Amino acid sequence: MGRCDDPRLVVGATVHAKAVHIVHYAECARLDGSLAGTKLVSGTVASVTRQVTNGRSMTGSTATWDLASGTVSCAVNKCVETANARGRSGVGEGV
Q1: Domain assignment of residue 21, yes or no
Q2: Could you give the C-alpha distances from 28 to 3, 13, 17, 33, 49, in angstroms and in order?
Q3: Cα distance between residue 53 and residue 45, in whole Å
């Protein structure tokens, strides 16, 4: 499997992840109840960055995820709420 075969490195590709890897477990439990640990969500790759620092190559990607509480954009363990259909903050509350 080469770089071209990995959908996480293609801008516009659909990717999947567990919801608890994107938002806090408490938020997932509020939305999905007992299925909070197994809920899968789909997202779209927004950007891919490649850089070399001190002889080490690093590849990072940013994806946009559509959740019930709004749209979330995540890049390397940093998630930011970008829009919310309900008009209230759902991601990152109480942090």
Answers
A1: yes
A2: 32, 24, 13, 7, 29
A3: 23
The residues, any chain, with a CB within 8 Å of residue 71's CB and separated by 6 or more, are 64, 65, 81, 82, 83, 84, 85
The sign of the torsion formed by the CA atoms of 66, 70, 72, 78 equals negative
Domain range for 55 is: 3-81
How many domains in the chain?
1
Asked whether the whole model's pTM tops 0.90, one would answer no
Residue linked to tokens 């997932």: 28
Residue 92 has pLDDT above 70, yes or no: no
Quick check: is 88 in a domain?
A: no
